[in-house]
Amino acid sequence: MYGSCTSPEHVLDLIRSRGIQIVDLRFTDLPGTWQHASLPASQLSLADFERGIGFDGSSIRGFQAIEESDMLLVPDPTTAFIDPFAAVPTLVMICNVVDPETRQPYARDPRYVAQKAERYLRDLGIADTSFWGPEIEFFIFDHVSYEVLPYRMGFAIDSREGYWNSGRNDGTPNLGYTIRPKEGYFPAPPHDTFQDIRSEAALLLEQIGVPVEMHHHEVATAGQGEIDMRRDTLTAMADKVMIYKYVIKNVARKHGCTATFMPKPLFGDNGNGMHTHQSLWRDGTNLFYAACHYAELSELALSYIAGLLTHVDALLALTSPTTNSYKRLVPHYEAPVNVAFSKRNRSACIRIPMYTTGPENAAAKRVEFRPPDPSCNPYLAFAAMLMAGLDGIQRRLDASRFGPLDVNTYQLPPEQAAQVKSVPGSLGAALEALERDHDWLLEGNVFTRDLLETWVSYKREKELREVEVRPHPYEFYLYFDI
After folding, report:
1. Is 370 a catalytic residue?
2. Where in the numbering of this chain does the GS beta-grasp domain appear (predicted)?
């Protein structure tokens, strides 16, 4: 369904033929959460696809000030799909945000940033297409509660699969098939209790128009899973990430569970990553493939890698953009904390998958950037990764200073380990890096100074500072009796 409509007229025909009663308009705020407003299908006209539909931009995180609040949503007909969760027949369209006075796209609209990044790629003449394949991990919990009060704060998580339930003896049956920490990768039922939920989500994604390659349980205990989508172009894949998160959350809720994409909800086990596969193409040819080089990577691909790793500190402010992200980016949880590249090596920031090799598999050649997590805004994160890679190509940056490092970097002798740079250890450090190193993001007016300043300010004031000023429960463990 997503991508099957080609025009506003096609959308109106679909509304009539499918008996659609409600049209739901979706857009993404600056931090990366879907927002929506609905109208009776009878009220949608061809003119709305040109003039847009008004909303209050001052009530959206990271958007307008109150004195300039009026904004417009312009539906993109190519994004139309029928909402599988709505009891009332509902058609969803993803929208672009437009300034009503200038009639220009809104510079802080994340989707517009992604569209500009794709246009910049074509304008440079390096490639005409970039392909993206994020591996988005999530947890499905049976219970979560949290509170943040001046005199009490904390959280509680429970899962039928959680290893901490192996000794539960509360009068209800305990069947014993819990999953030990770090042993959740690929166990069959009865250990994997969320097979049907993931299958239902995968089939709904396919029904919506988001092709799925596979799904499976992930490494962590307590219901960690992953559903892999087939690659797509930058903006389309960012749209699909938003659809993916919507589907997972609502399927879980339907089954009395709750899903989270929080990077590190559990201490002592793997967190949720969003390893992002990417490649550049021109005239139907994968520019990242070269038979005679390391891991069958072209010189262009190696320069792209060098761009990602040169700007990694600043890049993480957009790809790993929460305080919780840096509780995931610690050694020994398959976390890519080492600024290096390597084939088949999951301890490096960049892995070159080697599942398929040879000229007959040239289309599969890609690089996997592993630090991102699903707390990011996918439109901004994909655009930023592309811009970093393109900077590496344009400046012909040398990847050799970052590897290849074909060893387990966690087991290097101390003197060698000290020579391998690590990613930033906190959101504050990543934001400082973005303030120092961002000119490459401004090329082609893809990102604007206003957007970056707004991003840094929002993250510091609304997230980083609010976390820093609150006592942490572990501080009581450490210091209460001091």
Report:
1. yes
2. 18-102
Ligand-binding site membership of 218 (annotated): yes
- 468 in active site: no
Catalytic (active site) residue 275:
yes
- The catalytic residue among 269, 313, 368, 373 is 368
Report d(CA 241, CA 221) in Å as an integer: 24
191 assigned ligand-binding residue:
no
- Is 135 a residue of the active site? yes
- Is there a binding annotation on residue 137? yes
Supply the mean pLDDT for the chain.
94
Q: What confidence category does residue 280 fall into, taking pLDDT thresholds of 50, 70 and 90?
A: very high
Tell me, yes or no, whether 65 and 133 share the same domain: no
Q: Active-site residue 218, yes or no? A: yes
Q: Which of 90, 101, 95, 79 minimizes the C-alpha distance to 29? A: 95
pLDDT digit string (tens) for 168-218?
Answer: 888 788 778 899 999 999 999 999 999 999 999 999 999 999 999 999 999
Can you give the CATH number for the domain in which 35 is found?
3.10.20.70
- State yes or no: 328 annotated in a binding site: yes
Count: domains in the chain: 2
56 is catalytic: yes
What average pLDDT does range 314-334 have in this prediction?
Answer: 92
* b/e sequence 203-231, b meaning 16+ C-beta within 10 Å: ebbeebbbebeebbbbbbbbbbbbbbbeb
Domain that holds residue 346: 129-138+196-215+224-479
Point out the catalytic residue in the list 29, 218, 239, 373: 218
Question: What is the number of other CB atoms lying within 10 angstroms of the CB of residue 195?
Answer: 15
Dist. CA 209–CA 198, nearest whole Å: 17
Inside any domain, residue 61:
yes
CA atoms within 13 Å, Cβ hemisphere of 125: 0
pTM of the complete model: 0.96
**pLDDT value of position 287:** 98
